[in-house]
Each structure stands twice: as C-alpha cells, then as structure tokens.
Amino acid sequence: MSPSKQYPSRRQALSGFAAVAAAAMLQRDGIIRGSQPGPSSRSDGGDLGGWRPPDGQPHFAPRAKRVIWLFMNGGVSHMESFDPKPMLNKYAGKTIKETPYAAAQDPAKLALERLAVPDANGNQRNELYPLQVGYRPHGESGLEISDWFPHIAAHADDLAIVRSMWTTDSNHGAQTQFHSGRHMNDGSYPNLGAWVHYGLSSLNDELPQYISLGNREYWNRRDGHYLGPAHDAVPVRVDPQNPLDFAQPAAGTSVAARQIGIDLLHDLHQQRAADATVSDEGLAARIAAYELAFRMQRSVPEVMNFQDETAATREMYGLDLPHCRDFGQQLLATRRLIERGVRFVQVQHGAGGAGAWDAHGGLKANHTNNALAVDQPIGGLLTDLKQRGLLEDTLVVFATEFGRTPGSQGGDGRDHHIFGFSVWLAGGGIRGGVAHGATDEIGFHAVEQRHYVTDIHATILHQLGLDSRRLEIPGRKRLEIDHGQVIREILG
User: Fold this and answer.
1) Among 63, 81, 102, 415, which has the minimal tally of Cβ within 10 Å of its Cβ?
2) What is the band of 150 on the pLDDT scale with cuts at 50, 70, 90?
C-alpha cells in the first residue's frame, strides 16, 4: 500500500472521529460535567458553597434554542456597512483636528487600547476618508444600511444593529477577543460557543452540538480551553464525501460489516450492564460513543448533501453564482445543521492571515468583493429561516473583530479601529428594526449605550436561558467584564 493510500490506524481513528462522538456522549450524559471538581475536591481547599456542574437544562425559560454565529475576519468598516456617516463626505480630506470633532483624539479617550503586537497597523489615521459606497433607509424601521448589503438590508425590520461596540486589542488578536471576551495578553479562555456547549444538553445525539465551518487562523482554533477539548467546536466541511476527519471507514469495510461490530459492542454492553457487580459509567459512555460514531458516519454526510434542496433554495443562497457559491454552501449547510438539532454553528468568513476584510488599502474593491461573497447567502439564510419558522427560535449574529478608521490609510484604505464599530443580531427573540447605541458623527467613538464584546455574549446566553455566573467553575473565577451585561433594549 502506498503512503498516500494508507488509512488511519485504529488508535488514530479513536483519537479523531470516535473521540468526537465520545465527547458528545460524555457531555450529554453529564460525565464530563461530573468530572469537574466537586464540592469536596477543590484544589485550594476552599468552600465551593454547594457548587454543582450544569445539568444541561436552561436556568430559566429560553427564547432561543440555537445560535448561528457569522464572523467576518479582518474588520468590516462600520461606516460603510451598518453605521453610515455622511460627515465623512462633508469633511473629506481634512484632518480630524480641522473638524468640529477634534476631541475624538483626546488621549484619555484613546487609553483603552492594549497593544498585543505593535506594528505599522492599528494606528491613528488623521485625514478623513469619504464613504466609498452609498446608503439608504430600509424597511418600515428606516434602518440605514450601505448599498453593499442589499440582501441583508431587505431584512432590516428583523435586525437589531448595535452601533456602539468597542474592544481593546487593536490587532487581529481581537478575533479571539470577540469570541472569548478576553485580550490575548490575558491567556486562553473558553469562547461563547464552548460555554453554550458546556451549559446545555444535546438536541440531537446523531450530530455534534457545536460545529465550525470555514477556516480559522491559528490563534483562534481552540474553543474549550479550561473547559476541556470536549467543548471545542467540531470542524466540518461542505463535502458529502469527506465532511469530517476520520468519518470514512477503512477501504473494504462494508456497512454490513460495520453493523456487525456495532451489534457486538451493543451485546457486550448489555451483558456488562446485566452484571450487578459491575458499575462503570465511563465504560458505558465509551461503548455508547461507538454507536454514536456509527450514526454520525451517516448523519453528517447526509447534511452536506444538497440533492434534496429545491432549485429555488439553491438560488436563494447564491449557489449558482461563482462569487458567493462557497459561502452560500456553508450557510445552506448551516440551516440544514440547525434544523436537525445542532445547537451552535460558528461560520468564519475570510479567515487566514489577518482576514479578508482587512482593507488597509483598496477598501472599495476589498469590501465590494467581500460583500458580494456574503450578502446574498446571509440574506438567503434569513429568508429561509423565516419561511421555515426557524428564525423565531434561532439567533443569528453578524460580527467582526473591530471596525475601521474614519481616516484614510495609504490614500484608499482604512486601518483597524477599536473605539466604535457595529454588529447585528436577528431572530431568537430579538426585537427587529432597531438601531441601538451610536458612534459620534465621524464614527470614531461609541458614545451612546456603549457595549464591550461580552455584552453580546450575555445577550445570547440570556436568550438561550443561561446565566453565565451559574456556569462558573471552582478555581476559575471570572471577572465582571467576562460576564457582560444583557442588552435588554434589543430584546423582543
């Protein structure tokens, strides 16, 4: 057998696909949660106050069951997407000090920045750069959205745009910061999807409950961190022939042969369970994991096969258009995953290096092309979810690590900007047609109802019926800013 045709060993397979299944089973049955320190096992000897791991149930009645997390890597310009600023046109070519908004560069207002990797980017850009695209009001709400996003804009009355975000990392570690709430200088911390996976039980035992689609940069590939690898997202591909590592059995192994093996494991499990002298929850979960892995070998490829989708649905997601086919396939797969019970789907657009949206130069061409790649698929996803009655309990989030500077970089680009930017949410009990918070007239600072990134986390957890403080682990006390504040003004 040539090296290129070798199949993974039994040990490799167990550490790959079957391990995913085992983690899902252990998490579902509470065994992973139960392995967390108990009331009498705190390493520092302190009192845990009756702490118990989560039981997989919401803490209070949820408004949402599922989350679709759409993340645009590189930094989307907020002024040319969901927070248009006409003053940039009026004062184009002038320095900020020459405008009525000179106070924006007050050093006290800039002090929140924490440098991780000082370089030529993430700096102040003084000469104001005009808007590179038009904008107009949309829907009954009249939300102003740029002309680069017409398909998303068609859902203006479903969107809650938060225009007053801020963060602290002025380089692309802010991607990790938006997911976890912590600056990279602080270390590695679980991200939002991992906390959801830790807190809530499975909706479908045939599929992973936390899935990632799209490339991820090396600094943003892990999710669970101190919660454990069982709470990492499972990376999948839109490829029915090979959607998941180690999902394919070795060559020459028929379905019937695999079923014989599963049946044998089941019989051995039953015999052991019948032995009243033996009690081994871990072994029971491991055996059950093999059964789950077998089911997932069928269920995951089926999700990635679009043959049963109508031509109208394919067109809705832009699968017939080269410029948005790839992202459209990912979002159609996302809808198929969540309607089959996947709890949290994380979709990364443009990851790799700094990120596709990182327009230090040529912003107009950069954002035109990137918007063409994502706008129709996202608009199609929202339409599809709404038509199927899924949007009411599925929370969709559109986010990016930071915005871009009001001033120009290199004459036709914009630099990283942490002091004010925009994200939006839709569905899952979110009130639509809302513009919440505000930046100043040139889009420099968030000035009204300011929100750190964990306020988005808190809002999502609240809609899922989770209280982040009740998810804390002994010995891992979280800061107040880690928990964030629910943005109640955008709740339905």
Assistant:
1) 102
2) very high
